[in-house]
């Protein structure tokens, strides 16, 4: 999926940036839904997809080595304002570097979930890397199925 905007177009204000990314994500999901002929999706399913597109868009901006420090700070600020994100002050990236993290948990249809931790260098917000897990609910408890780690720049 390509980003619906460029980093240069991102407003400096994290609230505005998140609102614009969310609006673009909603348009993308609705267009994709029509393209696939999916007419019976619930509002909950659409919201899940929108949240995933927002998170993917922010991850893409964070991972881009050409993203400016101002934009990286905006990306971190936008992440921290998402209702599914918790800011974690001390996380370690896959290379062992300490950073500040945005821990994200997304629900998936059928009781599944995806959790990711995006890790940034404190102060500069240089992207260090991320870890992610995919799981499913089993009897009311989460069980991890797979994990991935990715280093940044």
Word description of this protein:
- This protein is 37% helix and 33% strand.
- It is α+β, with helices and mostly antiparallel strands.
- Strands 1-2-3-4-5 form a 5-stranded antiparallel beta sheet, with helices on one face.
- A hairpin with a 2-residue loop joins strand 4 (127-138) and strand 5.
- Helix 1 (14-36) packs across helix 2.
- The model is unreliable at 139-146 (pLDDT under 50).
Helix % is 25-40%
Query: What can be said about the biggest beta sheet?
Result: 5 strands, antiparallel
- State the total count of DSSP E strands: 5
Molecular shape? globular
SSE pattern = HHHEEEEE
> How is the largest sheet built, in terms of strand order?
1-2-3-4-5
Low-confidence stretches: 139-146
The helix/strand class is alpha+beta
Report how far apart the termini are: 22 Å
**Beta-strand content estimate:** 25-35%
- Name the average pLDDT: 82
How many DSSP helices? Answer: 3
Task: Please compute the radius of gyration using only Cα atoms.
Answer: 16 Å
